[in-house]
Description:
Blueprint: E1 4-10, H1 18-32, E2 37-43, H2 45-48, H3 55-72, E3 80-83, H4 89-98, H5 103-107, H6 110-116, H7 125-139, E4 145-147, H8 153-169, E5 180-182, H9 217-226, H10 245-257, H11 262-269, H12 274-300, H13 303-332
The chain binds adenosine-5'-tetraphosphate.
Amino acid sequence: MSQKNIFSGVQPTGNLHLGNYIGAIKNFVKLQSENDSKCIYCVVDLHAITTKQDPQKLKENILETTAVFLASGIDPSKSIIFNQSMVPAHSEGTWILSCIARMGWLNRMTQFKEKAGKDKEKASVGLYIYPILMAADILLYDATHVPVGEDQKQHLELTRDIAQKFNTDFKVQDFFKIPDPLIQEKFSRIMSLKDAKNKMSKSDPSDASRINLTDTEDQIHNKIKKAKTDTKSFPANEKDLNKRPEIQNLIGIYSSLKSQKISDTINRFQGKNFSNFKEKLSEVVIEHISPISKEISKLKSDKGHILQVLKDGSEKAEAIASEKVKKIKEIIGF
Length: 334
Ligand code: AQP
């Protein structure tokens, strides 16, 4: 079987949450145990500055995101863990690829539209070309598979378009590998606990909308207790979930953490009231998140260790990425 090169990243923008864990990080950990996988996981701080960041807070969030990787089970002796800004090839690669990408392709990106909001004129140029930086991240490591949440699927398609255009324009078939997204079929999008129309997100001003990976047991318990439900009874089957996004989300979280089908969860709680289900949901979330939360605070007390992990990982990443940039430069005629 051919080797899988896995690459993915998480922005150090604080408040890492259960959506990041279920949609991405849990999968990162699973992939590193597969024999045919070489995994590279990046703290994408260059992506983070596409929106305004407080410099001191950004420094702390870089360490915290690395701590989340380690506490969740990503092992630096098996996977490369590194910080994007420590590897200059990402910025250099982005410039070159931005001369390959087309304006029309970027104009279709829905995440820019969502994040820029109504006043697009005031959004940073970096936010607009964010998907090109993401393409550079992936293509510099010859990634074949990219584990992401469903929200990143469109950016992956753009990465494939850029890779294909470069290979065709310069007649270098197979120079850039065409990466595939690894999106879990189910539970790929965890929604806000307060309004299931929106995804669970770090930047939601309401802390009650998300379970942070640093939350205490009491905080988790209280947030789930107050999570929005409706006045109807517990669903009798999967069809009953239609037009009940809040219930679908909570049942999805439970099923994902228990690694079981939605129908099994429904069968277990059918006929019971929501408070009973929420109690059990709290238990399951606490069982998964509390050990991570405790390990994060332990790791954060030894900043030197976290910085060393990033330094070692960045050296390994630099060796791969700078070699690829060197080849790109030769191809384009520098
Ligand atoms: N709600 C979610 N459900 C499932 N997966 C999610 N991801 C994010 N939110 C959810 C996945 O987590 C990975 C890391 O995301 P990111 O930090 O790079 O940025 P993001 O997608 O912009 O995350 P947020 O939480 O929504 O941050 P803000 O609020 O700053 O925009 C990605 O693989 C993502 O798919």
